[in-house]
Design goal:
Length: 375
């Protein structure tokens, strides 16, 4: 009997059923080489869930993620979609509704601790509601929360209890949005993982989905984090990731600019005020990325000579690894309140009422857009 069990699960995780490998720690199915010889092996992800009540963010390619998402449409599910308020348009899953059918969605808006302390939260909630609708999402509820400060999670758990019924709970999100912290909280509140993780405890588990059983026979399903290459956080080196991702509330930096002036955000990007009356621009970026003001006519030369040195981070070596910069020009209408949003880096609020022409320069592929002002 023992031999049959071993044959049936050869090379597969005894917890989630994924194919095992011992070469890449950051990819699904990883186990240390010395564990391969054990009779019942569980991958590192399941091991950490079992022993530390911890869920890790494992990523998969976008096509594979969408294939996994499409399975939800045929099931009775409550979907928790986690987005990052600092990178809202970069972390929202466009077309989510198309894949999950009529299943209800809770939108968990994480990292609210990064917004300035004087933020009007009712305005933020209304803004999120409009932007989610613009993205084609039908949401049952919006919960503003902070994984770091553990705020808003009680409200989210209440919403789960209210809308779940007898459904499974699927948690979806991009990388670096705080999905693991939420999963860990759900595990603590809804699940008991004292028993061994075996295939029998996880019937029907599909590749890269970790099923965490609930007392009523349903499950929390942790889906892998989706990678969007259009986000700065997916492009930079690990050392630079710590610079662009804020770790405390953003202090807005206000600059009074005349047309023909430029702001550099370290060596990560540049903002040009091309045309318009003198006006102020408010920058919402990590405090660890210095802002340098110069004349537009000198900007190209300054970047070529000092990129990665005076204009850093990133270092010159890391800057050379980034794609060539692309210019994005925008005409801001008179009387509008708009942000120029750079995915993963932050945004610049246009404060002038008389209209303007501006441009942003960032590595090719990074999402840049104009949106209604968040703050």
């Amino acid at each position: 009997m023992r031999e049959e069990h071993g044959e049936r699960n050869a090379g597969r995780c005894g917890g989630c059923g994924i194919k095992l490998q011992s070469e890449h720690k950051d990819q699904p199915g990883y186990v240390p080489a010395q564990a391969i010889e054990k009779e019942i092996i569980i991958c590192q992800r399941c091991f950490r869930i079992k022993n530390y009540n911890e869920s890790s963010s494992i990523t998969v390619e976008q096509d594979e993620f969408l294939r996994l998402l499409s399975q939800i449409g045929g099931k009775e599910a409550l979907v928790i979609h986690i987005v990052d308020i600092f990178d809202f348009q970069g972390s929202i899953i466009s077309g989510l509704q198309r894949f999950i059918g009529n299943n209800p969605v809770l939108l968990a808006v994480n990292k609210t601790d990064l917004l300035p302390k004087v933020t009007n939260w009712n305005k933020v909630r209304n803004w999120v509601q409009k932007e989610a609708k613009e993205a084609g999402l039908k949401v049952e509820d919006i919960v503003l929360c902070s994984a770091k400060q553990s705020s808003g999670f009680d409200r989210l758990l209440d919403a789960v209890a209210e809308h779940r019924g007898k459904r499974d709970v699927y948690v979806v999100g991009a990388t670096n949005v705080g999905k693991s912290t939420l999963i860990n909280r759900l595990i603590r509140d809804y699940s008991d993982l004292d028993q061994e993780l075996t295939v029998s405890r996880y019937p029907g588990t599909t590749l890269d989905m970790v099923h965490i059983p609930l007392d009523d026979g349903r499950a929390i399903i942790d889906t892998p984090g989706i990678v969007y290459p259009s986000r700065y956080s997916e492009l930079v080196s690990p050392e630079d990731l710590g610079a662009i991702l804020p770790d405390k509330p953003i202090k807005p930096a206000v600059y009074q600019l005349n047309e023909g002036q430029t702001l550099f955000f370290g060596g990560f990007g540049r903002f040009d005020f091309i045309q318009g009356e003198r006006q102020s621009f408010t920058c919402f970026i990590s405090g660890r990325v210095p802002i340098h003001r110069t004349k537009l006519e000198k900007a190209d030369e300054l970047f070529e000579v000092h990129g990665g040195e005076l204009l850093s981070p990133p270092s010159r070596e890391n800057l050379q690894k980034l794609p060539d910069f692309t210019r994005h020009e925008f005409r801001i209408p008179r009387g509008s309140r708009m942000d120029v949003f750079i995915s993963g880096l932050g945004w610049i609020k246009i404060n002038g009422e008389n209209g303007s022409v501006v441009a942003a320069h960032v590595p090719k592929g990074i999402k840049v857009m104009v949106r209604p002002s968040l703050i």
